[in-house]
Each structure stands twice: as structure tokens, then as C-alpha cells.
Amino acid sequence: MNTSFSWIKSYVPDLEVSPQEYADQMTLFGTKVENFQALNADLDKIVIGQIIKIERHPDADKLVVCQINIGEDSPIQIVTGATNVKEGHKIPVVLDGGRVAGGHDGKKTPGGIKIKKGKLRGIESNGMLCSIEELGSDNQMYPEAPEDGIYIFDDEAVVGESAISVLGLKDVVFEYEVTSNRVDCFSVIGIAREAAAAFGKTFTPPLIPVVGNAEKTEDFIKVSIEDSELCPRYCARVVKNVKLAPSPKWLQRRLTASGIRPINNIVDITNYVMEEYGQPMHAYDLDTLANAEIIVRRGKAGEQFVTLDGQTRNVDESVLMICDGEKAVGLAGIMGGENSMITDQAQTLLFEAANFDGTNIRLSSKKVGLRTDASGKFEKGLDPNLALAAINRACQLIEELGAGEVVGGVVDVRDETIAIGKKYRHFLPLDVAAINRLLGTQIDKATMLDFLERLGFSYDENTDGILIPTWRQDIDTMADLAEEVARSFGYDKIPSTLPQSGTTGKLSFSGQGEAIAREAAEAYGFSEAKCYSFESPKVFDKLLLPLEIAEGSEGEVSNNPSEQHTEKDESTNLSVPKTAGNRPPQRVNGAMRGGATLRNAVRISNPLGEDFSVMRTQTLDGMLRSLALNQNRRNTDVRLYEVGNIYLPTETSNRENLSKQAKTFYDKMEAEGFFLPQERMQFTLGMYGEGDFFALKAVVEDILSKLGVNDKLIYENPTNGRIDLEERSYLHPGRQAEILYRKNAWLGYLGEIHPLVAEQYELKERTYVAVLDLPAVFTFASPARKYEGLAKYPAVTRDISMVVPKGILASDIERIFDKKGGAYLENYELFDLYEGDQIKEGYKSMAYSLVFRAKDKTLEEADYVPAMEKLLAALENERIELRK
Amino acid sequence: MKKRLEQLKENALLKIKSADNLSALQEVRVAYLGKKGELTALLKGMKDVSPEERPIIGQFVNETREALEDLFETAKAQLRLAELKVQLEEEVIDVSLPAKKQKTGHRHPNTIALEEVERIFIGMGYEIVEGPEVEYDYYNFEALNIPADHPAKDEQDTFYINEKVLLRTQTSPVQVRIMEGAKPPIRILAPGRVFRSDEVDATHSPSFHQIEGLVIDKNITFADLKGTLATFAKELFGADTKVKFRPHHFPFTEPSAEVDVTCFKCGGKGCRFCKNSGWIEILGCGMVHPKVLEMSGIDPEEYSGFAFGVGLERIALLKYEIDDMRLLYENDERFLRQF
Questions:
Q1: Which helix (H) or strand (E) holds A867?
Q2: For the domain A511-561+582-780, what is the CATH superfamily, name and number?
Q3: Between B164, B246, B329, which is nearest A32 by CB?
Q4: What interface predicted TM-score (ipTM) does this complex get?
Q5: Which sequence spans correspond to the domains of chain B?
Q6: Mind listing the pLDDT tens digit for each residue in A600-655?
Q7: What predicted TM-score, i.e. pTM, was given to this entire model?
Q8: Which of A276, A480, A496, A759 could form a disulfide with B226 if both were Cys (CB 3.0 to 4.6 A apart)?
């Protein structure tokens, strides 16, 4: 919303403040001034002059020498190249030392251009004649100005006066941010009313005499409304003997300052009234209306309509139409039709000022794909009283401007709730104590009443209540009145206190866990990335996800922590394989997902584009794209982590932490088939450059350990057949592992990116990723720690060197250590691994160092030798050869 | 005997003085005090000393031994110092040589800013809570006093999954979920991801973060809201920061306000950063609308409260002078390492 200062001041005559003071106070009062611009900011020393004499320049064909009367004792001499000026013309003259806003070509110079006297081809020139462009405007806004040449005033212009004032440029234009609840402030009158209240000045809106001849409007036009819900009011008036002409300068200037181009008196008047009252109006050529009749009805399915702009619009039953006796003549509240447009030949006009349902106009405007100034105003929901006031104002202006003969009376068809003279919408009790209690203030009743009355509210002593004027559609509760009081009192004057009450501040458990994981990852050089939650469905193909769900390979998606294993469980519960590779498959618990199920995603129905259309079901795409970007920009050894959700479609909602009320609501929604997806926070690590699978594995283990997930982790690769797992298509088949904990509870996975996927992302270096499913991890996480004492007694170390069949994994061997190592086996460590020439085909050499220690004594041979023997026997039983 | 001892001591003294390194000194020591050393050899001659003289000579031998030991120790300490001095001189390094860096990771500027905000509010008794990012239309709009056909629904450019499910456009639905479940006093801070269908550019992202605050109790006032946010602004932007509350409109609060802080670049004088206004808008807030309280099952006659919403990216961009929002989602390590 833009208004000029002069227009506002005409309704608040005592307002004597600087533009800056005005902007500041209006902003603090609730009508935010975004910015303001003085139209004459770059104009100085420009007066109206009259050309007395024009002579040829002795040394230049294209220049003339003018003697100009500027209202002083003697004329001044100016040399000009202008060709449109004649002796006797009154023109704007910028004097020596003055400024103009820009060049003749319309380009503005910030700060303006200074004009100095000087010589042009040897002849003295004491200033410059100005075009409208040099004054900072154009001939769209000043239609009387020539397209190219000096601006010429009409004969009434007074020589010596400020040209800036006469051209209406001594004004300031304010741009406001009006909030959507203050429909009334999308008008000069609304803003002026606020301004008066903000500065404690008197508000004097225009008093409009109702004009019209002795004829009756109802003899010219009949109006009927078929749908009064969508059109509660329709006011119509008629103007005969229309004389189209330019509007007077004062009206043109006001429109110009508001950024509206003057056209002719009739169009200008409707625009003027729309600015002034915020009520859009429309004028029809009455002679084009069949049966001299207006019918307001809903459109018909498949109906087409050509609007003023020549475009064909498709309408249906939801769109309200203005029709005559035969055909549609306008899209209600949006735009009139080409068929009833006013032409130069129009003799009799029908003026329409109506009130339409805001929501319907908004939806209709969307439907037909046309948003206009008018629809923009209607969709906010206008005060139905405006229609009559505005149409009477327009007719009064028509008479004042001599634009036609106004027919007496008005056809006013309206809903029974709209009564003539009804100024108030409803009434609210004034609870002074409640308002003060809400604000933390001690404002007395008299002050509150003063504030409210200044804003146009009335006090009703009988009911001790406040009457809410019809233009304040936003005031419905005590809290609304409290805001009126608060902003009148001044938000800045309300005290500043802190709430009294004892609550304990804390991070959530998962928040604490996330912070611990972040710190651990950062210690290993991983920096935090942020990726989008939505992605392209093409990602599924880029990640080589299978199209079909593999049978029986999926872990159950589960929210229920009781299904997972929260109790401390000492044993890993895995049996030692009789022969490596044919152990019966184990079930994986928890939220593990992979394969084709990841293609089952939540889809956005109105995405920004395909690239942002599905909610991610895994976090790989964002991570790989970020790593690829870094590689592409030649950043070396990059390590990134990301904490973010995946969104898994589910029909078993997560009802943890839901209130009773929310559960009831979920039941209702889910019965209708509306489910929220399961959101699972993922901790994703990705890296290339220095480091490999095992380096990343160390990071994963450290993160888990710092979270208190301290028992032995199990890593399973789908190709080794230890456990029934579907291969992750996006990872190297032999270099991927599911991370399991205790009774095969799934925590996440890690691996090297599959070469084909790396190619898709243009990753040239080997890239590793790990994903921890935080809800699964947090099931086991705990801040509890227990001091176990420092070892006091010496340890016994025994090294075992083995030749191991390749199919046997380190974890198989370690499982034997765990099972057979006895009570004193404290620790073991792989210190050598060799596969190659010296070792026979199909075998590898492995060497472990075993540490035995007791907490309460120095070990003797008898304490660990039997365990060692059992352990060795078990190893041999697995076709492992021991090297002595 | 005594004379020989004195002679021995004198000789030893000369040799100690002439020993110019620790191993030479050790040789001297062995030569005199070792098992086969001169003093030991001399002691063997004790058997020739008359019994009456033995205690005197014995004492003299011990005194000589002790004196020699002292001399050796002193000499040793001096030599050790001298050698150390040489060693330290040899070990001088160029301390201006580059550091051997252990590469550590850096947190995302969003997270750093968020953690700072969280610390401030945890200090004021707020609990950090979360809510779903894919949300029911009801919680995102209706329960916040934005009914079905409200224009605000259009203004927020919502991504829909279906007619009842959407990507939350604000963190405010968490307010409702908390109010439905908890009994006042409530003091929560709900940070999280929100979504609006804005094309990606320097100042817009279809996915960004908000931090929602909510306080509900008996007798919570607008003055409390002012005090709380003034404290927050001073903690976050510095003790000299001033705040300005401007009336505004949000469907779920009444009265509502927008809050500006004095520009922390120019201190309020006006600069390019604050577009010469001296102020920077940082958040929206207000007293929780009685209809919202009621819908969430809280009696507006008994309780009142305030809520506020801060744009996290806005804070991060302002605080770290990041001029393009796209940098936040690009994850260029050279960018991340600056925080």
C-alpha cells in the first residue's frame, strides 16, 4: 500500500511532523512504513518561467537563446536545444545552483544533477528548461507532457512560483506493510484514521453530499442477487450524458503520487475512490446491458468468458458472475467483460460497488488465473458499508468534475444483516483488569476508552462495553482489544519483566545424544553438512535400488523399543560356526531397511519440481552429492557428517509422547487413511581421501562408545551368509557391513560406495559412508558409567600365530576367544595379517596377542593354561593351523 | 696412612676438575671409589694400622669418601648442566614453522547458532522439544487459528502430501502438541526444520529452520514476553543490544509483535547491513491467542502465555555475515571450516 503524505494530511489537517517522524510513529503504532521517498528529493531551485523572446544562437544551428521571465526584476538568459518551446510558453526552469533528478532520456541520477550557469558556444546560459523526465517522472504519469521536449504549463500557471509544488512533486510517498487482518488500512482513509490516532490529532474524513437529479436509478436498472452468500451487497448508480475528458490536475497528481497513471475522468474517479476507500468499483456501458438488468449468479460448468484484457477465461459453478438479462458481463470482483467495456461512444454508465465473499474471490481468482487490484482488495473481506459510501463518493466526484449527469437514488440490494446506518459490527465487554493482566500494565479505564475512541470504537455505558465499528473485521476478543490498547499505549512503554515460575531447562535425551555423536565425529575430522529432506525419485535409480522387494530379506520397521533389547545382555548369543559359512541365518531386529522398500517414499503433491518431489528414505543422496561437490572443487580428504531425518511411509504411527487429545485426533485421521510417516533421525558419515573402511569403522565405534553403547558390535556382510541380509545395492558388495548389537539389534551400516554408484555421482575417489539409525542407537545409549578399577596385578601375554582358511572371519576367531578364553582373558588384539606367496592357496596368516589378567592376584600358569588349551583346540577344530 | 689419604684426595680433586664430560667423570669415580678403586685399595691396608689408630683412621677414611662423593656429585651436577646447556642449544627449533595439524571437523553454522540460542533459553528454564516435520494440516494451521480458507494458508506456500498431511511451514505446531499434553507451567523451545515452496536463491530456501518458544503459566504477561526477548537479544548479540517491539499480526497470537534489534554492525547508527535503519528484524512473537489455548485444552481464563518464532538461518546469516543462503546447503568444506 502506497499513499502520498499530502493526501493523508488532507484528512488529518493538524498533522505537522517530518516524514521520518511520521514513518517511525506509524511503524510503532502498527502500520509499518517500509520506506518513503520525497518526490522532490533530487529537485531544487526550479521555478515557473515564461519565455519572452527566442533568438537564434549566432554560432550554433541547433541552439536558441531564450529570455525568460522568472518573476524577478529582469529576465534571465538561457540557451536551449529544445524545439517545442515558443515565445509566451510557461515552462519549468532550473536556476543556477539548482538540481534536476536525471537526464532527458528518463535515466535518474541518485542525488540529482547540479545545474550551473555557463557558456554554450560562447553565449551565457543561466539555467536550464526542464522536461518531465528531468523532473523525475514521465508522460505516462503526466499525460499532458510532450513525449519529447520541455514540459509546458497551462496559461493559469503563475510565473515565479515553484514548479515543484505546481507539479505536485512537493510530496512524500510512503510504502506501508499492511498486515492481512487490517483490511481497512488498504485505503487512504484507513491509513489516515490510524495516523490521526497515532499522533492524537483529529481525523476529518471527506464529507460526501449525496448528489443526483430528479430521476430514479431503479427506472434505469434492475438488480437481483441469486447467491447472497457470495454477494451480500450490490449498489448500482447511473450516470447520463457522460463527457469523457482528462481529470483535473489535482486529481491526476494524487493518483500519480500513488503510482497510478491518469487515463480519463471516469477511470480516474474509480481509481481514486478505490485508493481512498479501499472499495473497488466497476463501470459498465449501460446501453450494452440486455434488458437493463444485472443478475449476480454463479457461473456454469464449462462457461467461457472474455475479460476486458481480451483473454478468454474458463469458469465454473464456483465462480461468481455479473450478468445482464442475457449474458455474463463481468467476473465478480475480479474484472469486467470486454462486451460491456466503456468506449469513447458511451453515453450512459452503470456504476457498480458491491461486497463479495473474500474467500470465494480468492479461490475464483486462482481458478481463472487472474489476480487484479480489485480481487486483491475483495479477497481480504471488505466492510459491506463501504460499497454505498464509495459509490456515493464516486457520483459526487462525477458531478464535481462535470463528467456526467448523476441519476438520483441508488439501487442497493443487500443481505438483511446489512442495515443502512449500522456503524458497529458487534460489541465486546471492556474488561480493564483482564487487559492489564494480559499486558502487565496498569492502564486506567479512562485512558483505555480514550485510546479506543480515537481508533473509532465507541463506549456503551449501559452495557459497559465497546462497540466495534464495521470496518474493524479483526476485533473479536478481549485479546484483540488488548492489542489496540497496547499499541496506543506504546509497546515501548510496556514494562519489561521476566516470568516467575520454576521450570528446569534441559536438552532432550536425543538432543544430548546428538551432541555427543557430533563431538565424536568432529574429533575425527568430520564437518557438519546440511542436506535437503526432499529429493528426486531418480535418486532410487542412481543408487541402483532394486525394483522388486526381495523375499524375507527385510527387517521389521519397528518403533517399539520393547521389541528391541534394552536389558543388559552379557553374551553375544552367537554360536561358534561348525564350519564357516553355513551357520543358520539370524534374524535382525529393529528398524533396518534397504533394497526396494526404499523406493516406497512419501511424495509431495505440489513440489517445486521433480528434483524436490519425494521425501528421502535414505540419506545417501545428499551426502554423495555434497562429497562430489567437494571433489569437483578439488578439496582433498573431505569428511562430512549429517544429522537429519528420513521419512518412511507407515501405517503404524509413532504414538510415543502423544497426548490423549492427539491420540484421538490420530485415530480419526488414520481411520480416514491419513498417516504421518515415520521420521527417523540418521547420523550419516561420508568421506573420501585419506582413510578406508576400517578408519570409518573406528569412527563409528568411537561414536557408539561415547554414547555408552559399549558392548561388542557385530559386523555382518551379506555375502558371507552368516545372517540373512539383502545386499545394499549402492555399496561395494564385499565392502559393506550391517552394524548389529547384542541380540542382533540393527544400529546401521557402513561400506564403500559401489563403483557404479560412484560413477553416477561423478565421485572419482573411493568414498566411504556410514549411517547410524539414531532411534535404534538411543535405545541402548546411556550416560551411565562405572569405574572398574585400575589393573594392579601383572598381565600375562600369549601370542597365537595361525594359518586360517580364507572363509573364516576375524569375528569367527574372536568369537572362539570370547567363548573359550576363560575368566582371565582380558583382551586380544590382531597384530599381523598376511595373505600372499608364503601362505598356501586359500589360507591367510593371522596373529593375535592375548592378554590374561586377574583383578585380585598375580596369575599362575594353572590359571590360564587350561583356557588357552581349550581355545587352541577349538581353533584347530575349525581347520585353523597353529604355528608354533 | 692419613697422609696417603690426603694425597689420594688431592689427586682425586685434580682429576675431577680435569674431567670435562660425564663419562670421564664416571671413570674418575670408578678409579677412586669403585670396587677396584684406589680408596678401596687403600682400605685394604687398614689391617696394617694399629688397633688404637683404626677408629681414627676409619673415621678419616669415611670422611674422605664422603668428601669425594660430594665432590663427584657437585662436579656431576655442573657437567650435567653444561651438557644440558649444549643439548638445549642444539635443540632450538624455528617456532614459526607451520603447525602439524590434526584435522578436526567443524560444526555447521546453523547448529552453532542454534546451540547458542538453546543455551540461552535452557538457562532461563526452557526444555528443548521436538515435533514431526511431516505434519497434519490441523496442527500446522487449524489449531493455530488459521481455518481452512484463511488467506494465511496461501501466504505460506505450503507443500502438501495430501489434503490432510503437509510439510510443516512453521515450528508453531509443536506449541499445540505440547499444550495438548502438558500441564502448565510450560516453558519449551522447539527448534526444527520447516518447509515453504520458495525457489532456491540467495535469500530463500524451500527448507529452513525455525526456533519456536512457548511459555504458559498463570499471570504470564506481554511485559514478560518483552523481558524474555530483551534478555535473549542481549545474550545473543551483546549487552548493548536494544530491542524494539512493533505491533504486527499473526493468527495465533494476540497482541502480536515483530522484534527488531539494534544493528550489531553499526550499533544502530545505520549502515549497509541494516539498510541504514539501524535496526534488524529478528523474530515474531505475541501472547498466545485465547482460541489457540482453548483448542489445545488450556483454559484461557486461568492461564496465559506467550510464543515466539525465530528464523535460525536469519540469525546464522546475520551473525556470521554469510551473504548467500545457498552456501548453507552446499556443504563445501572450505565454507564449513570457517566456523
A1: helix A861-877
A2: Bira Bifunctional Protein; Domain 2 (3.30.930.10)
A3: B246
A4: 0.86
A5: 2-90, 109-336
A6: 999 999 999 999 999 999 999 999 999 999 999 999 999 999 999 999 998 888 78
A7: 0.86
A8: A496
